[in-house]
Amino acid sequence: MKAVKALGWALVILGAWTVAAPFVWGYVAHAPAVQAAVLGVAWVTFGLWIALTDQPAAVALLGWLSALLGVGLIFAPALAGYSQVSAAFWNDLLVGFVAMVLGVWAAFWSGDMPAPKAPIAATHHR
Description:
75% of the residues lie in helices and 0% in strands. It is an all-alpha fold.
């Protein structure tokens, strides 16, 4: 369970980097900056949710969504036509791959988490 929580925090860091990357690498004025902000906020949200929840189904779903966004980011430079922006291209390729790996890892590791306990049923007296 600690490993899944660590993966969640890693997604938070990855998301924060994705938001910061256009400013660090200097492509704020280009189209990939908006995409980076949206995906970064999504990964921060997913990562926090994974790190703070004890529900394996939620972790699995968020892991798969993170992986899917990572795959999308890998292909985004070619599909959105900004592969000529070198910093954005390489950043998106690397971040997309890392997000894909972390997402799949979280989705598969979510099965190691303990099942939530059933609430105690109220007894009714007649």
